[in-house]
């Protein structure tokens, strides 16, 4: 495939892990680059790739998107995501092959719409990556079965006015009921953003999972 533009933050020495970061709608790789550097600082042997969304944002200003929000509803969201998923799955597989990192050592890191893509990618292909760090996101539709080869870590601000924290709680409840490996961390007073505390929680969850 023709790869989208991306920012590469190389591993220090041997590349043991691959982090693939997907931004929110109307944003771009530069917006999520600080997160890539922060994760790389915590895991120096990880190569972090901050990837641009596949399409120009169609909402009236710059940035990129993974799928369009124009006229979207709860009923049409799953179809929008499903249409974008094949290219996203191919992207992840291509990057794993290019960097010589297996699925168990690959981490999908999403914010907002990037989290939707990451969660739905694992729902479509369990074991595509060993871990998902999902900030301020949701499922397009809740899963019917638990991933057996992927651990999911959800992080969300409790005052999120874009994607309410209720979506994260519903996802966590469903995944727990299905027997999935899943965690949920929330922060009071936090809106649709990645704060230092949420980042700290994410690093801790990831460190625990990567060590297991």
UniProtKB/TrEMBL annotation:
Annotated coiled-coil segments of the chain = none
Q: What is its EC number?
A: 3.1.-.-
Q: Which Pfam families match?
A: Abhydrolase_2 (PF02230)
- Asked if the keyword Flavoprotein belongs to this entry, the reply reads no
**Family matches, as InterPro entries:** AB_hydrolase_fold (IPR029058), LYPA1-2/EST-like (IPR050565), PLipase/COase/thioEstase (IPR003140)
> SUPFAM superfamilies recorded for this chain?
alpha/beta-Hydrolases (SSF53474)
- Annotated Gene Ontology MF terms? hydrolase activity
Key words of the record = Hydrolase
Q: Does the keyword Hydrolase apply?
A: yes
**Phospholipase/carboxylesterase/thioesterase domain boundaries:** 14-203
Q: Which family does it belong to?
A: Belongs to the AB hydrolase superfamily. AB hydrolase 2 family.
For this entry, the protein name equals Phospholipase/carboxylesterase family protein
